[in-house]
Amino acid sequence: xxxxxxxxxxxxxxxxxxxxxxxxxxxxxxxxxxxxxxxxxxxxxxxxxxxxxxxxxxxxxxxxxxxxxxxxxxxxxxxxxxxxxxxxxxxxxxxxxxxxxxxxxxxxxxxxxxxxxxxxxxxxxxxxxxxxxxxxxxxxxxxxxx
Length: 146
Known about the structure:
By secondary structure, the chain is mostly helical. It contains three helices and four strands. The mean pLDDT is about 80.
């Protein structure tokens, strides 16, 4: 029994399990944001553009009387539109988040290093010193340029 509890504790404390738990919680919070943007901003704009057309009520009846079948193709159209709108909102949000994360924060300089030959401060990602033209890391130089 102790071994089982120890194995369970090791399993739960592994980094990937904790990362997954954090991802699920963040995903739930992100879902609320996406639903608010789609439901409160984008859908009313589309309703305004389409003059209030409600796709979900569209359909046709096959047969007559109480045995008639109603084919509601409008629900399919509405679901497809909701999916496309949600995907578009997620695309733009992720694109915006990525753009913010690539830029250094205001007042924060990009990471630099000192050239070992001429002591010029250069970006960490530099392959060649712009001052003395020394190759700093030959492994980063593309093979077709060597």
